[in-house]
Write a structure and sequence with these properties.
The protein has 160 residues and is α+β, with helices and mostly antiparallel strands. Helix content is 32%, strand content 26%. The longest helix is centred in the N-terminal third of the chain and has 23 residues, at 3-25.
């Protein structure tokens, strides 16, 4: 991973985690800024499945929209919040720079955690050439890769 990209992601991740901490101490009324020209469509979907939960209660799908809105699509549709512009920009940049061929070239070789009450995470990224799907039981996901750091930072801003 090029050092300049990592150097850019560290402040974004720190800002995201600080915002989560501040949000926990803030008043219950949270006002989300509305962008003046909001992009339409989704940016990434993160689906988690499996786990030791009755009736699939551990399964959930979270969607980060291109305008920063974050909502849970399953098991029930609910609004989670809005990703701050700087974090959203970092995520969009990492998606546009991602080499999905290289990311998918490292197959997962272990036993999928769902086989022993663990969870699988499935990421679906929206790109100009179509959806790019990366499932943790099919591909060895490196959580330190800038793309996954950016996704984690964005989700952390809404408490996920």
């Amino acid at each position: 991973m090029p050092l300049p990209r990592l150097a850019l992601l560290i402040p974004i991740a720190v800002a995201a985690f600080l915002m989560v901490g501040c949000a926990a101490q803030a008043s219950p009324a949270v006002v989300s800024p509305t962008p003046t020209s909001a992009p339409i469509g989704l940016l990434v979907t993160v689906e988690t499945r499996g786990g030791e939960c009755p009736d699939g209660a551990c399964d959930w799908t979270t969607v980060i929209e291109a305008d920063g809105r974050v909502h849970e699509a399953a098991p029930a549709d609910s609004v989670l919040g809005t990703v701050p512009a700087v974090v959203l920009e970092g995520l969009a940049t990492e998606i546009s720079k991602a080499d999905f061929g290289a990311l998918k070239s490292r197959p997962f070789t272990g036993t999928c955690p769902v086989a022993f009450d663990g969870q699988e995470t499935i990421y679906t990224f929206a790109t100009p050439s179509g959806a790019e799907r990366i499932a943790s039981c099919e591909v060895e996901v490196d959580p330190s890769d800038p793309l996954f750091v950016a996704v984690s930072a964005a989700l952390a801003t809404v408490g996920r």
